[in-house]
Specification:
Elements: H1 2-10, E1 21-24, E2 26-27, H2 36-59, E3 67-70, H3 71-77, H4 80-83, E4 85-86, E5 100-102, E6 107-110, H5 115-125, H6 132-140, H7 144-153, E7 158-160, H8 164-168, H9 171-177, E8 183-185, E9 210-214, H10 219-229, E10 233-238, H11 246-252, E11 257-260, H12 267-276, E12 279-282, H13 296-302, E13 307-312, H14 327-334, H15 336-340, H16 353-376, E14 380-385, H17 386-395, E15 405-406, E16 414-419, E17 422-427
Parallel strand pairs: 1-3, 2-15, 9-10, 9-12, 10-11, 12-13, 13-14
Antiparallel strand pairs: 4-17, 5-6, 6-7, 8-14, 16-17
Helix pairs in contact: 1-2, 2-16, 5-7, 10-16, 14-17, 16-17
Length: 455
């Protein structure tokens, strides 16, 4: 329970509620050298308990519903992108140029799933077209740190493999370690609107909460997908010129609507959305949205009482504060990939656990902020980073007990339904509490197909 206690404390939870949580421990779930299973369980526990607490407060229940989690459900959900099938077709997780490569002095991890990132990587390496052999040859002539700096300077993504000791010597690592797992600030603005009481079944703690979802990839969309499960009206808004990867959007789009909006040409429509929002979740590179007047401070000033939840790869501080990043790159930089690898080759966690774990922790922080609003009013600014979650995994979580039950695979936590995208097989949410929802109210739809307005 040490990991659960740490996660619950990080979101400001009352320790007296921890006995409401119990878990089915399964041997073999998320097996790794690092305590990934314990991190995953802790993040989902905090989220489920925060949901149960908010639901109890809004429904006027005498006690918080019991939270009972299962390592099998958690392990399945933490690789939800691998279990997704669309009309029987499995998605492709990584593009050919997103992987580890040998350099003159070690290894470098690149990320090129998005076309614009792939183009910048190739430009930085002087490779005219997508040819893995040519990329390998170009990288083999350079040092890993040289590649890292050159590719980032070109707007691409590449990170030199580091050991935990090498990462600890970095100025960015020291900046990350000084921060709490969940940063929280209370803007000096007016009180938030009061959410109405709940009734009916299932208990939907976030019913009526309007969430403006400005996130991409996995971590942020997992957080907003979870809020949608719990009843929130989640509207994901993307720039029309930056489409999300189709399968990624499908996996994280359950329960949401999806719209496109140009933040310059469609500014009035965006301000109308903001004026009625309760929560804004952002997942872009720190500073990226500031030029549109969308910093946390400016959002809170224009929408008093707003909860702003910001997610980044490296944190919004330190020399890497404005860098792009993804789970696989953070694993490489912080020493996680070195620990999980061998003398011959770097490794990886059994799931993109930094993404998924941070996503559930972010959702927990939002739910706790909504609970505190009922008692104290006012908005919140919440900040989380994948690098800080990695720091917690490396140094803050103890391995747990082995389970008496085995993890026999994902089948018990997979389901199917029809959608406009086709027949979907997908992982159910691991967030579970007595009387709560089991599945999302709606399947994902076509990216950008919905109107940019609240339901």
């Amino acid at each position: 329970m040490t990991g659960v206690r740490s996660a619950w404390s990080a979101v400001g939870g009352d320790p007296a509620l921890l006995p409401r949580v119990s878990s089915v421990v399964r041997e073999g779930a998320l097996r790794a050298r690092l305590p990934v299973r314990e991190l995953a369980r802790a993040c989902v526990s905090a989220c489920a308990l925060a949901a149960a607490e908010l639901g109890a407060r809004r429904a006027g229940l005498a006690e918080v519903p019991e939270v009972r989690l299962d390592d099998g459900a958690i392990a399945t959900a933490f690789v939800s992108e691998r279990h997704l099938l669309v009309d029987g077709r499995a998605p492709v997780a990584f593009a050919p140029l997103s992987r580890f490569w040998r350099t003159a002095d070690g290894w470098v991890r690149t990320h090129a799933n998005y076309p614009h990132h792939r183009a910048r990587l190739l430009a930085a390496l002087g490779v005219p077209e997508e040819d893995p052999d040519a990329v390998a040859a170009a990288l083999a002539e350079r040092s890993a740190r040289e590649v890292e700096e050159a590719v980032y300077a070109a707007g691409g993504l590449a990170v030199a493999l580091r050991s935990p000791k090498e990462w600890a010597a970095e100025e960015q690592a020291a900046a990350v370690a000084r921060r709490p797992l969940v940063e929280q600030e209370r803007p000096a603005t007016a009180r938030a609107r009061v959410l109405p009481p709940l009734d009916g079944s299932p208990l939907l703690p976030a019913a009526g909460v309007r969430v403006l979802d400005l996130t991409r990839v996995i971590a942020g969309p997992v957080a907003t997908r979870t809020l949608a499960l719990l009843g929130a009206d989640v509207l994901r808004v993307d720039a029309p010129q930056l489409p999300e990867l189709a399968d990624q959007h499908t996996d994280t789009g359950f329960g949401k609507r999806s719209a496109t909006l140009d933040l310059v040409a469609g500014r009035r429509a965006f301000e109308d959305l903001l004026a009625a929002a309760d929560v804004v979740v952002t997942g872009y590179r720190p500073g990226c949205l500031d030029r549109f007047g969308l910093s946390a401070q400016e959002l809170a000033e224009r929408r008093p009482g707003l909860i702003v939840a910001q997610l980044s790869a490296w944190g919004s501080y330190g020399p890497w504060g404005e860098r792009r990043g993804f789970d696989s790159l953070v694993q490489a930089a912080t020493g996680v990939a070195a620990i999980e690898g061998s003398a011959e080759r770097p490794g990886a966690l059994p799931a993109q656990a930094l993404d998924h774990g941070t996503g559930y922790l972010l959702a927990a922080a939002v739910l706790r902020a909504l609970t505190e609003q009922r008692e104290q009013g006012y908005g919140r600014c919440l900040r989380l980073s994948l690098a800080r979650t990695a720091q917690w995994l490396l140094n803050g979580i103890e391995p747990g007990q082995e389970g008496t039950l085995a993890y026999d695979g994902p089948d018990a936590w997979l389901t199917e339904r029809d959608s406009t995208l086709g027949r979907l097989r997908y992982a159910l949410s691991p967030v579970s509490f007595a009387g709560g929802p089991v599945d999302w109210a709606r399947p994902p739809g076509v990216w950008g197909a919905d109107a940019a307005g609240w339901a």
